Amino acid sequence: MTTHDRADVAGPIAAVRAELLSSDDVDERLDLVFSLFRASFRADRTHGRSGVFQFEIDTPAGVRYRCVSVADGHCTASDVAPAPNAVIAVDLADLVALSVGGLKGTDAFLGGRLKISGDVVFAMNWIEWFGARSRI
């Protein structure tokens, strides 16, 4: 994504952030978080790599699952993935904070607020491919 492209999504991302912080519906909030992630995707940084991130999100309504698949320079989100490369477990409040730049992934991981199973090295691609929310 070029600087110009990032400027084009900055307005919609700001709108999603505002809506995200005001939503009380768990599934709506998750849909907004993952739309923000998709808008932040940096295909040029994948360098042809691909894989699947599965999120296990602890919410007041129970555990919810979301997956982000990256392939051929595109990312998609869905509820399930047959064989994720990495599984990221996090609670809803921390996921929201991560998505809007209020919490860094490394801080959450080191503080035990985010847990990774599977291919930890693959999971670290998230930062490069989706960038820090605070930069948007």
From TrEMBL:
<feature type="domain" description="SCP2">
    <location>
        <begin position="44"/>
        <end position="126"/>
    </location>
</feature>
<protein>
    <recommendedName>
        <fullName>SCP2 domain-containing protein</fullName>
    </recommendedName>
</protein>
<dbReference type="InterPro" id="IPR003033">
    <property type="entry name" value="SCP2_sterol-bd_dom"/>
</dbReference>
<dbReference type="Pfam" id="PF02036">
    <property type="entry name" value="SCP2"/>
</dbReference>
<dbReference type="InterPro" id="IPR036527">
    <property type="entry name" value="SCP2_sterol-bd_dom_sf"/>
</dbReference>
